[in-house]
Amino acid sequence: MRFTFRYGIDAPFWVGFFIVIGLGFSLVSLQGLPKSMGGLIFGFYMLLTGLWMFLYSTVIKLKHRYVILKLAQVRAGDQVLDVGTGRGLLAIAAAQLGCKVTAIDRWSQWDLSGNGKEAFKKNAKREEAADIEIVDGDARQLPFAAESFDAVVSNFVIHNIKGAADREQAVREMWRVLRPDGRLVISDIKRVQEYVKILTPLAAHVETKRVFYTFPFSRIVVAYKKCTD
Predict the structure, then answer these.
(1) N vs C: which end of the chain shows fewer Cβ within 10 Å?
(2) Model-level pTM?
(3) How far apart are CA 210 and CA 217, in angstroms?
(4) pLDDT by residue (tens digit) across 115-145?
(5) Domain boundaries, given as residue ranges, for the chain
C-alpha cells in the first residue's frame, strides 16, 4: 500500500481538529473511567474520523483517482480537463495514461495543505508525467471554448463553492466545455443531488456511484453527453 504526503492533506484544519479533540477527550476520559465512558466513546469517534480523513489523503485517494478516471473512460490521446486540480492528483494520473491534460484551480490552502502550482509541478516531475497545461482560473468561468474536452473530471471540489447558483454555474461550465459523446465525472462528499438535478435534463444518461472508503463517504456522478448536443 502506497503512502505519501505528495498530494497534500484534504481539509487540513478539520483533520487536525478531529485528531486533537479526539485525543483530548480520550485521554481525559480514561482518567475518569467508568463514569466517563460516554466521553471516551466520543473521543474515539473523533479520533477515528480524523485518522480516516488523514488516511484518505495519504493513501486512499491515490487509488480513488483511478476509479474516477476509469468511470470517465479516458484513453490515450483524449483531451482531459481536471477542475480543481490541487496538487495534480487526477491530472498527473491522466497524463500517465497518455491523455492530453489541462488542469485548472484557484489554489486554496484551506481546502488542501501545500496547495499551489509549484507543488503540482514538483509532483508532475516526480511522477514523470507528460506535459500538462496548468491554468489559474475559476470553475464558474472556465477559460476554454465550448466542446474542448473529451472528458472533464473533478474530485472533492464543487461543494467548496458557496451558493447553489454558483455551484450550478460551475457544473454548467464543465458541461459546456465537454465534447459530444464526452464524459463528465464529479466525485464529491455532498451537494451531489444538486449536480444530478442539473445534469439530468442535459445528458444522454446520468448515473451515480456510492463510495464508502472515503471519509466523509462520497458519491460519484457520471454524465454522458449526447452526440447531437
Answers:
(1) N
(2) 0.93
(3) 8
(4) 999 999 999 999 999 889 999 999 999 999 9
(5) 12-57, 63-224
